[in-house]
Amino acid sequence: MGNQGSKASTPSESGGIRFKIKGLRWWVIGMIMLITIINYLDRGTLNYMWVANIEYNLVDEINPDANVNQAQFFSNDSSYLLVSKKGEKVTMHVSKLSFKNDGKTVVNRQGIAYDLGIVDKNASVADATKQAKDLLGQITIFFMIAYGFSQLFSGKLYDKIGTRKGFLVSVLIWGTADALTSLARGKVSLTGFRMMLGLGEAGPWPGATKSNAEWFPQKERAFAQGLFGAAASIGSILAPVIILMLYISFGWKITFVIVGGIGLLWIIPWLVINTKGPKEHKWITENEREYILSGQPESKISDERAKSWAELLSNKKNYSVILGRFFLDPIWWMFVTFLPMYLVDQYKLNIKELAFSAWIPYVGAMIGSISGGWFSGYLIRKGKTVDRARKTAMVLGGFIIVPSVIAAVLVPNAIAAVILMAFVLGGFQFTIVNIQTLPSDLHCGKSVGSLAGLGGAAAVLGTILAILFAGQIASWPLLFGLLAALVPLSLLSVFLTVGKIEQIK
After folding, report:
1. Which of 112, 146, 157, 458 gives 20 to 30 Å between its CA and that of 100?
2. What is the mean pLDDT of the segment spanning 414-418?
3. Model-level pTM?
């Protein structure tokens, strides 16, 4: 994978020592991977703290010194006194609770939806579950509207001001938004902060595609995009564990502040490392500079004028990115949005069980992201055309997704379900990293971000429609099972529009 290693130093023209970093492109993608992990921590805060099953041990008499959650039943009004190990007390009617372990464990629904009064506390368990699902879907739709709007303009913004400043703007917006969510007082303010989060969080997707086009030769771009996708998966792996442990320890308000603040701290090393592109960066070795630039076919194109949206939309090939992502991306977003509620409701997982199982599907996503990018790059290195390599990888990923989705919704226990979901998201990432690489396969640097942004906006539109559709389906297995139909629609749309994958003249 080209030059790698640690720091070296060479004499500068002025006689001083100038440091060179071998493999500087891997430092740049490493910084983007780190902020993508943080991005998914910020994104997961609401979904994982929205509803949480908190378990209480049923006892005959409350012991104030016990270091466990306790529940005491009162037959006169069919209510339970719930006392947390912190000493917090609440009385709940039996109809508002559920039970495990043959009735020895009382399960109470808590979380942001209940703390802010967004879900009716007097509703039955079934009604409260539907309310929580529908309201989370509504808030997510507003998040996605802001996210899609930002996808469109973030691509243009990154093309105009560059990836260094582009990431700075994005992270400032979303890190501040997540921290400010601790001030939410109800559905309206919570939705407003999530929209602000969406405005910032969309930027890294066209930004990473553009950065990879600048910093990597074509044969390594899908692998670099795979690393970026893997970082999203790593963030999703860490999110349930980190967020729910913070929630248990400090509550949801402090959790928002901590997670939002991490992103703002990232800005410092980013500005230090990513000062210029590979053509002008003072720390890059001459060997790596030549290796990168000589492997970029678009560098041979003299006309580097950025294409307008109208120009991009007028070319059939570009719809491979737009339609491909419109159909395929909802699979990822339905998991990101509803997986916590699905596991809580379908398998009755408590907050700790959720924390230590919800990450498993994203291990598959991480593996699929890296292997999908590596696989198409491997085919190119073996002499296959870019067209053949990308399409082969997309189809292979699709063959992994469809049977895994169907099997995942049919198994009776949570462990088998999340393992099969790992194959679903693995296949998804195997395919999507190659679709996300298409903008740099089709265009030169000044249009890559713009097309990637259009693709991201189309993905958002597809996701919004999927969430609206989800509100009409009460069955979790049916809802997730129907995602399999999106795979052939996505692949057909890519193959029917792109023709041969090559630079558009």
Report:
1. 112
2. 94
3. 0.80
